[in-house]
Amino acid sequence: MLRSPGLPDLAVLVARTLGEQVDNMTGILGREMRAHGSGVARAADELSTAARPNHLPGRSTSTARMDTREHVRFLKEYNARQQIWHLDAAPSRTRGHIDDYRADGEPELLRDDRDYRTVPLILPADRTDIRGIQRRWANCHLISGLNALEKKAPGTILGAVRQVGDKVVVRTHRGTYTMNATLPFNPDGTAAFATMPGGSTAVAFIEKAAAMHFGSYRSVQYGNAADAMHWVAGDRYPTTHIQDIREMSLDEVRSVLQSDSPAAVNIVPPERPFDIPPDLARYNLNPKHVFVPDQLDSDGGLVLRNPLVGTTDSTGLTLEALHGMNASLHWVS
């Protein structure tokens, strides 16, 4: 990501977020992230290109790699932004940690042509399949993080939301977010929020709470599942872990996946965006995307659950094959 000339080093700003107020850092991040024509947007777009529906491994090699300097700058701001998941809810009623809310008190939307409509908190009638389904924007780390928490700690999702009068209240480890019972829609009337099997809106309101935490839906994009899981359930899982799977032993990876720790897998993470495994299509995997590991068999068979709407899970994958990929294992304990 690019910074304006003269901005302080983001390593210093990260330290400030951990020990002091974050106004300076988040103001800088907010200004940079809103600069659509800048290298910030180009770098973020480059990282997300392979996750778009029309991009699959092997189809094209023409996508230009982002400049190495842009990538280094992107990572500095990316890592600084992840620290915001570890902050308490912003005390202001008019802004999140990065962006100001709209004049009506709602967090800014991902696109200007979207708007809010009244939608109540709908809880699922069938409690056997509680999971979020991601819409086509770059928050797979949040949706997969929620799904990973729900897999290991059932009740996490529904326990975080409740309707209080005409408001919806979301409670996470880092704060309580009281919001209008509204959700974003596309101009054609289709939902622009995360859904759930059976039409529940519970995950959608947790997603909106994250937008309130940062100030906008845009600022929630591109993140780490481990940090998002901390924001939701850091009181139960205070320690976050992010590790290159290739630097772990096979037994270490298996131990995490078989433990009670919620875990997610980021295939081709932002730290290493140019190392794309050649066999992803064979396993029905997307690069630069976060999945939830499931069904680890005694013979090493493994399924990675894809949260994205309209997609299917991995096929034919083994723990050994995953162990050889450019992937990060995210878990909380």
Number of strands: 10
SS-based class:
alpha+beta
Q: C-alpha Rg, in Å?
A: 19 Å
Helix content range? 25-40%
Order of helices and strands: HHHHEHHEEEEHHEHEEEHE
The rough form would be described as globular
Distance between the termini: 31 Å
Largest sheet: 5 strands, antiparallel
Strand content: 5-15%
Mean pLDDT, nearest integer?
Answer: 84
Regions with little confidence, pLDDT below 50 for 5+ residues: 1-64
Explain this structure to me?
This protein has helices at 10-19, 23-33, 39-48, 68-82, 140-152, 156-159, 202-214, 225-233, 250-258, 319-323, and strands at 115-118, 161-164, 167-172, 175-180, 182-185, 240-244, 263-267, 289-294, 303-305, 327-332. By secondary structure, the protein is of the alpha+beta class. Helices cover 30% and strands 15% of the residues. It contains ten helices and ten strands. Helix 1 packs parallel to helix 4 (68-82) and helix 5 crosses helix 8 (225-233). Strands 6-10-7-8-9 form a five-stranded antiparallel β-sheet, with helices on both faces. A hairpin with an 8-residue loop joins strand 8 and strand 9 (303-305).
Short recap of the structure:
This protein has helices at 10-19, 23-33, 39-48, 68-82, 140-152, 156-159, 202-214, 225-233, 250-258, 319-323; strands at residues 115-118, 161-164, 167-172, 175-180, 182-185, 240-244, 263-267, 289-294, 303-305, 327-332. With 333 residues, the chain is of the alpha+beta class. The longest helix has 15 residues, at 68-82.
Which helices and strands occur, and which strands form pairs?
Layout: H1 10-19, H2 23-33, H3 39-48, H4 68-82, E1 115-118, H5 140-152, H6 156-159, E2 161-164, E3 167-172, E4 175-180, E5 182-185, H7 202-214, H8 225-233, E6 240-244, H9 250-258, E7 263-267, E8 289-294, E9 303-305, H10 319-323, E10 327-332
Antiparallel strand pairs: 1-5, 2-3, 3-4, 6-10, 7-8, 7-10, 8-9
